[in-house]
Amino acid sequence: MDNTESNEYVSRAEFDKLRNQLVNSLEIINEILSGHVDVDSFGIHKLAELESSVREIQEDLFN
Predict the structure, then answer these.
(1) Whole-number Å distance between alpha carbons of 55 and 38
(2) Which branch of life, at top level (predicted)?
(3) Model-level pTM?
(4) CB 22 within 8 A of CB 54
């Protein structure tokens, strides 16, 4: 395996890590927005904004 192959492997590992972080974040945000976690209305509004932002990032990465 040369350096190029090694770098591709690292890049893929980093990509997979980012993808997993995004998926986990969306799951947590969805839990909060669905009412499974008690937060005030300001928190709900901010989480909705965050979810929208994360979804945009996800679309950019995977489409």
Answers:
(1) 23
(2) Bacteria
(3) 0.54
(4) yes
